[in-house]
Amino acid sequence: MNDDLMIKYHDEEWGVPVHDDRKLFEFLVLDAFQAGLSWKTILHRREGFRKAFDNFDAKKIALYDEEDYQRLLNDTGIIRNRAKIRGTIKNAEIFLKVVEEFGSFDKYIWQFTDYKTITNHWTGNKEVPASSKESDAMSKDMKKRGFTFCGTTICYAFMQAAGLINDHAVSCFRY
After folding, report:
1. Strand pairing partners for 165?
2. Residue 157: CA atoms inside 13 Å, Cβ hemisphere, count?
3. Strands 118-119 and 165-166
4. What is the phi/psi pair of residue 118, to 5°?
5. How far apart are CA 65 and CA 4, in angstroms?
6. For the chain, which terminal residue's Cβ has fewer other Cβ atoms within 10 angstroms, N or C?
7. CA distance 175 to 166
């Protein structure tokens, strides 16, 4: 790729195991907004998302009201999708319930990979699936809890980003 931000993301962040709840929530938000769009589009607006959504503080976002919703709809620094904005607010509320139940979102989300990174052995991008049995289980449980924008493909992308799954090709220095 010839995009410095994408290269930096790949080289330093994608696939690195994340155990910080705020960072996990950030990936949930960004992966939900990515649905139907390219990761490049989201990555180039990441700072706008960070600013618009109070640095991905789920406690603050869960308290957003109609005024906040309207502010977000008018924020050109993010993707202004009504359903995704509402979904982010709703997901923040449910995220906090999961934290209350499990002690952390980290403990909840890593259960789907038995608390360890699944390392695949792909030789090229064409082999990488869009979902897995683990992302299917994650999606099913999240939907049951009321999360939105958490289909199995979004969950798989989240798992890749947050290091629950290592899908770097075997030839990649990050493998």
Report:
1. 118
2. 20
3. parallel
4. -90, 120
5. 37
6. N
7. 7
User: What per-residue confidence (pLDDT) applies to 130?
Assistant: 94
Q: What token pair was written down for 130?
A: 């869009």
- Judged by DSSP in three states, 38 sits in coil
DSSP symbol at 13: T
Locate all alpha helices (DSSP H) within 13-65, ordered by sequence: 21-34, 39-43, 46-52, 58-61
Q: Which residues contact 108 (CB under 8 A, 6 or more apart)?
A: 98, 99, 101, 102
Are 54 and 60 within 8 A, CB to CB?
yes
Backbone angles phi, psi at 168, to 5 degrees: -65, 140
Q: What is the reported pTM?
A: 0.95
Residue with tokens 């904005």: 85
In three-state form (DSSP H/G/I as H, E/B as E, the rest C), the secondary structure along 63-104 is CCCHHHHHHHHCCCCCCCCHHHHHHHHHHHHHHHHHHHHHCC
At 117, list the tokens.
């990174």
Q: Phi and psi for 119 in degrees, rounded to 5?
A: -105, 115
The CATH class given to the 18-166 domain equals mainly alpha
Q: Band the pLDDT of 124: cuts 50, 70, 90.
A: confident
